[in-house]
Amino acid sequence: MLQAVATLVTPDTILRWHRELIARKWTYATEVWTVRGLVTYYTVFVIEPESRRVQVAGSTRHPDEAFVVQAMRHLTAGVEHLLRPGRVLICDRDPKWSRAVVAFLEREGVRIMRTPVRAPNCNAYAERFVRSIKEECLNRVILLGERHVQRTMAEFMAHDHAERNHQGLGNELIQPLKRTNAAGSVRRRQRMGGMLNYYYRAA
After folding, report:
1. Which CATH superfamily is domain 18-166+180-201 in?
2. By percentage, how much of the chain surpasses pLDDT 90?
3. pTM, 2 dp
C-alpha cells in the first residue's frame, strides 16, 4: 500500500530556502536639534537577514519620491551593495514607494514584495535593528545637526558590524576580526565617549 506524504510549505520555509536573496527595507525617524529648532530626519536602510549586514542609504528631512529613488540608486551601485540583480526587497506599504521607485528597482533587477498592513513581524529583522540603534545609541544622544546624525550613525554601524555580538548569528560578529591571543590581557575599545564598548584580547 502506497502512502502519500504531504509537506506543508509555510512562508517561513520559503524564506529559509531563499534568505540569501532577500533584503529588507525600513525607515526610521530621528529628532534633531538645529538652528531652526527641533526637526525630524528620516533614515532609509536595508538589512540582509542572512548576514544581518545593514546598509544605510541616507537621511533627509524631506523623504519625497526623489530622495527614495536616489537612496535606491545608492543601494544598487557597486558589487558590494545589498540590492543586486535577482534579489527580493521586502518593504512596507508606504506611499513613497511610487511607480517611479518600483520602476527603477525593476530595471535594476530587484523584485519588490510588500508586507501586509500593520504587520511589523513580517519585517522583524529591520524592526529589531531600529530598536537596537535607538535604545543603544540615538535615544542617549542629543543630536545637533545633520553632520552629527551621520557621524553618530556611522559610529554605531561600525560597532554593530565589527564589535557587537548577534544572538541570531550564534553570538558571533557580522564581520569577525582577526583571532587574538587567548592568553592576552583584556582591553576595551570605546566609541562615542564610552557609550559603545568592545572588549577583546590583546595580540
Report:
1. Ribonuclease H-like superfamily/Ribonuclease H (3.30.420.10)
2. 33
3. 0.79
